[in-house]
Amino acid sequence: MIAIVDYGMGNLRSVQKAFEAVGHGAVVTRDRRVLSEASHLVLPGVGAFADCMRNLEEYGLIEPIRRGIESGKPFLGICLGLQLLFTESEEFGVHKGLDIVPGRVKRFPATALKVPHMGWNALTIRRTAPPLRELDPEAHVYFVHSYYVEPADASVVSTITEYGIPFVSSIWRDNLFACQFHPEKSQAAGLRIVRNFGDWG
Predict the structure, then answer these.
(1) CATH number for the domain including 151?
(2) Does 79 participate in catalysis according to the annotation?
(3) Which of 22, 124, 138, 181 is deepest in the core (most CB within 10 A)?
(4) Sign of CA dihedral 24, 31, 68, 39
């Protein structure tokens, strides 16, 4: 069973529906026993970084997330669920993240392009993580964000996307894959990624 971490924020039901659409059962939960017994973990995210970290701590979810990743079970972070994995974020001040992936979360620089970055963009694949297998090289995916991740170790980068600057749009390390875009809103390409993730492991 795939467990979607419920920390009181985010588009949990739409992520669950995406898994159901490709034939993978998924449950939205903050029950630590269920999270421990799940075969896969998903951390989606919409909202402010500091608020999400506070909720994860308040609901006692930080340790189950860490243990799940350390145990080797496939882990998917989506949008803010990617950013929360990093050491710290500069969103509305400096806030500590989970520090599972060393690096920072930074705001897009002031350019002629609008922030937040909202809409469809292509992925340039640097390393084909298991959830990206058989993805159409011309595929576009859906983004909504004002901040992007800057890993300390470039070897974790899976895809790059251009929006004024090239930014890291997904990372992959061992059993952990996390993306800045929303697979659950990315139509056929997103469902391919969701299916691949459910099949992983």
Answers:
(1) 3.40.50.880
(2) yes
(3) 181
(4) negative
